[in-house]
């Protein structure tokens, strides 16, 4: 197969107001015959340069109504135009430009980059198969400074970790979900709703939070809340890359450190992940 | 000289509400004698490990009232404690944790990382010299989709750039300023005010913007606005790392692209910088 | 599942001569029950900290005879020690320290880091399943300045790429292969032999090279040569991330540029990949 | 001022043998008047695009006989062509392509990237001032597994570091030197000689090494050896970014770890630097 990455900006205006989407598109094709690998016969190969042109032309003609719709458009174009394509996958990721505001007034053409979780989506299709759409968020960094512990774990002669009932829970979250049959979904609205679910499940109620007995359970809470609130989601995968913080031992410096000063522990660096579907549970 | 980097988290509570600062501190010492370099005599050397302990102990004892005050505290500690220190510089940078909100309600202990411009400061002092404090913002990415051009530049036989009166202005901004005599400044408040000035000078009025004839002039506008609005700033340096976007030529694809689809040009990558003071102008 | 990364250094001496291996180990476990996700019951969970201790203890006791043997040792330990482990995968990657030489004389304890292709391996096992070992090389950057072209590809209205019979072929190579039944393989020796095959197939004979009609065909040549020369390899995957170079058009600068000055094209960035086995061909 | 970065490849042939240099050039100009900043008057501004064209044209016409000569050529061009240029600095850095060898036979057109220390240089000139040339090496990672300690350092109540007489010395080296009057220097030959001096001073004799009482003393040894062996070097700056390794305490795991298993300590991360000239010593 071949794949390639294209970065570009799509502008449009409504009256004097400007709208901008900057995206990175990665298209991934598999052909029906591997003859270019085996025989050096290039006659079916669609060059990277042509793929780039197609993506840019589609952006020019259709705009980017939503990341998901744009990914669907690209898949459809390749499947209907090239009979030598057996499989196509399109990944679209957004640069998080947000409109600037001055004293609450939105600016008509100025933007600031606010990377507090990057939105992406995928569309994939095999010839004669259904078109499947995924969406997700990545690089979302969250922290809870209390209401987190880790106790009652398995112990043997290699265990040195003490039990803790009041630690920091901090990590970088990756979340990806699949939609079922994509009718006329409002992808932007659903995405925002899911982002809110993630934050709510991570943090708990604003006045007291909710105790997390492990990173794993927090991952599961996020999945359960999304599945219960957002009916369009079929399967949801969450990966939480943990950053651990150790309370600095200041006894030999003559001080008592009551969880006031902590240092990040860079190794070992842990991660936990789980994929949860509607009826069937699978953990991978 | 020697320097080193220490990352840590400082937590404190007011009632049930948690506050968090995660910082990266870089301390830079020069000793009165270079004997450890020339003779391998370590008797005056303050080990990295000791410097780390001092920074952590100061954070524990004083907290981090503001980045600037913490940097000042560290400088003062080294100057008053170690007579072999000839010069000390402290750099403090913040991880941009922001309190989470649920339906507008602030969460008592949950935070999200929002890196839309990183705050930093520096304090430096030579023995018997004044303590000088700098503050700044970096990694602030901004874009204007119109009201920017570049015309009337110098031309010769190596010129191929066309004049443009409606291009994209996009870049990553670095801004650093020095304070004069630091009395009881409200460093947090001043920093926020300067950030607003930068955004305002970059973008212009929200309903129409302001035409920028060059990256250089935009840099100057930012400096002038900060100096006029914030009396505590003595000297201000601005560096703007430009990202250029080219309108894709779609003629050979049979289309007219009216500044709708643009691609970033990764090389050459340009940058312009200027340092501006209150009375005296110096360009470096 | 959970995974985590551990970095460490393993030293040993033979007489006065020092040997060093610095590795990054990533262990990946799946338990027989997902109860920690669903119920917050941690009683079967093996903490990251324990996994780190086990890896370090195994390194201390057994050393790192080869990356592959070390990965096998870790898998075996988890499978035989913890009956709650359903699946284990271990990834081991090496920091490429090489012994320093002075005028051809090897130094007994000094090393230089030479990252011209990073060696890694993987071992994985399901409970009651076979132990499977993979090895590979990554971040290997290669260039041919001639004997490469791309012609006869599929064309339609979106094609703008000209045919070329003398271009630069440049890319970053990733290669991973699986071993069959691992008897007493000399993993170090086999790895070096495969690296030589890759370089030979990429470059062709030293006096004239060999024409490459596409990145895809070069990928296939590498696979075929490895499979024909190294009988222990069962399946081999190659990914080539291409860097394209364009000859700079200097006509409007009054010069003819005969493939003397070229600039890298950063987007679109292409990649081609293929997996080839002994009897069966599968392209993914 | 303005600066920008240009990446390109320069090929040339001698008979059938190909030679390649891939470089990154950064040119930095300051004009005699800041009118483009203050008044938005662009009439003296040399666009980034023009600078790129000039660099590429010079590479096409003169080739890149050595990095230093190419940097000198660029400076000369700007000073003699543009009377509005008050100052020019050119930085040139090389991508470390090395010719491939098969069984000791050099390949005529195939190369491998071997980043074991990156070569760079700088040339700078003020109008009516001398042309000054610097050269250097960066990203050179070195390790000594013994013959290094750190003892007799300053101690007070914040000291927790134990004295050590057999630690690992590991770091990333940056080294930059200036040449005096640049006559017809063989820059390639001098650079190789200095690289050898660095390695020799770092490692000591191959059969026994040489004891290092501190990172600082090792920095000084490197400087002294270069100054004594290479008469063309006027001033030499060395920065050593240290990576510390801690022997893992395995007592609570029932094992004695005799400096066999060590983990890198990522924070605090230290660095020491020194600049040494021929007659005058200055430490900064």
From TrEMBL, chains A, B, C, D:
A molecular function GO annotation: urate oxidase activity
Q: Which reaction does it catalyse?
A: urate + O2 + H2O = 5-hydroxyisourate + H2O2
Task: Give the E.C. number(s).
Answer: 1.7.3.3
- Enumerate the residues binding O2: 48, 242
- One GO CC annotation: peroxisome
Its chief place of residence is other
Subcellular localization(s) per the UniProt record: Peroxisome
Q: Which NCBIfam families match?
A: urate_oxi
Q: What does this protein do?
A: Catalyzes the oxidation of uric acid to 5-hydroxyisourate, which is further processed to form (S)-allantoin.
Q: Report what the protein is called.
A: Uricase
Q: From what organism does this protein derive?
A: Falcunculus frontatus (Eastern shriketit)
